[in-house]
Design a protein that fits this description.
The structure holds 3 protein chains of 3 kinds. Chain A is an all-alpha fold. In chain A, 87% of the residues lie in helices and 0% in strands. In chain B, helix 3 packs antiparallel against helix 5. By secondary structure, chain B is mainly alpha-helical. Chain B has a 3-stranded antiparallel beta sheet with strand order 1-3-2, with helices on one face. Chain C has one domain. Chain C contains 4 helices and no strands. In chain C, helix 1 packs antiparallel against helix 3. The chains are: A mainly alpha, B mainly alpha, C mainly alpha. Chains A and C meet through helix 1, helix 2 and helix 3 of A and helix 1, helix 3 and helix 4 of C.
Chain lengths: 89, 162, 107
């Protein structure tokens, strides 16, 4: 049962990533693209956590944590750049 | 006591976070966590605001419970709106006048508002103390303002007594 | 593994994936930026949160010892989601208000 659930969840997250990618390519504004990139980061975290459960390997979790931190910093830096025209003031 | 623990809450948070990151696996990690919990607040003392806020534990726990329930409700709300016809959604910008006047508590309120049903906080105007929020689907502006004020702002004021 | 724990795990994983998918559907479908902001901030965050909790339960049950570092990650996600949403909203407002002539003059 757990295996079946994991397979379905993989498909759902892959679809979610495609939809985020669609918004990133399409997005009329820069902010839309940044938001889509941020969502893509979070989807990747979900995918990695799921992969960790599927392969019974907790090392995937460390990379998920890294992506979470990098994604947050990246989003903040990009929005800051739009807001100020500069990242470090 | 104050000399070694300038920020007791921060020390406790660092200790718990370090133990959580290492799965609370051994005594050695406990010792390391203790060293970090004492050392980091001492080293970064100059960067923190003067007075660490005093927190009332019981109302804080109650608010935490309310917020966790609301996060689930919020997600289901958004899901319903997203799957239905998008033409009928009525978004609006709403200005919520705030009673609290503390930058830290204001930030906390803005974060809670972003995670809870219907609203995302856009901006806090610190000269007028107005929180600008964007509501996804709104019928009654007054009801949204009232909900934010009674559900989240009042408990926050009680917790931090400001 | 116990049947009930397995059902709980399956439920958490499916709910998490479902919410993640719904957040992305919101991102792709809704008509303007501030409406799109709602999906990823609330729904996607809850989805990943529930999936991470499932991972914590799974590794606590199947391996010796308890698995706590997932809790730290969940906390991190729930703290950072509103902050990045807030900054993005501010940036969007800033772009919307900026007149075209001042395009390349940072303030």
């Amino acid at each position: 049962m757990l295996n079946l659930a994991i397979q379905i969840a993989f498909a759902m997250i892959a679809l979610a990533m495609v939809l985020s990618l669609y918004r990133m390519v399409r997005g009329p504004d820069a902010t839309d693209r940044i938001l889509a990139l941020d969502t893509l980061y979070i989807n990747t975290i979900a995918l990695l956590v799921l992969l960790g459960i599927n392969t019974h390997n907790s090392a995937y979790f460390e990379s998920a944590l890294l992506i979470a931190i990098m994604g947050f910093v990246g989003t903040v830096a990009l929005s800051k750049y739009l807001l100020r025209g500069d990242i470090i003031e | 006591m104050r000399r070694f623990f300038p920020h007791p809450a921060l020390s406790v948070a660092i200790f718990l976070l370090w133990m959580a990151l290492n799965n609370a696996s051994s005594l050695a990690h406990g010792v390391l966590a203790l060293i970090l919990a004492i050392g980091l607040p001492l080293l970064t003392r100059g960067f923190w605001p003067e007075h660490p806020p005093r927190v009332k534990a019981l109302p804080a726990l109650r608010l935490l419970g309310v917020v966790v329930c609301d996060i689930v409700i919020a997600s289901i709300d958004v899901a319903k709106l997203v799957l239905g016809p998008t033409g009928r959604i009525k978004p609006a910008f709403i200005e919520v006048p705030l009673d609290l006047q503390d930058p830290f508590v204001g930030t906390l309120l803005a974060s809670i508002v972003s995670l809870t049903p219907g609203t995302v906080s856009i901006d806090i105007d610190r000269s007028r103390w107005v929180l600008q929020v964007h509501a996804l689907n709104v019928d009654d502006r007054e009801a949204v303002i009232k909900a934010i004020k009674t559900r989240y702002e009042k408990p926050l004021k009680e917790i931090f007594s400001c | 593994m116990n049947f009930w724990i397995e059902s709980l795990l399956a439920f958490l994983i499916l709910a998490g994936a479902g919410f993640t998918l719904l957040g992305s559907i919101g991102l792709a479908r809704l008509p303007d930026f501030f409406m799109r902001l709602h999906g990823p901030t609330k729904t996607t965050t809850l989805g990943v949160g529930s999936m991470v909790i499932a991972s914590a339960i799974y590794f606590s049950v199947s391996d010796p010892g308890i698995s706590l570092h997932e809790i730290a990650a969940t906390l991190f996600l729930f703290i950072t989601a509103p902050v990045s949403a807030h900054l993005l909203a501010k940036a969007a407002l800033h772009i919307a208000q900026k007149p075209a002539s001042e395009e390349d003059r940072p303030d």
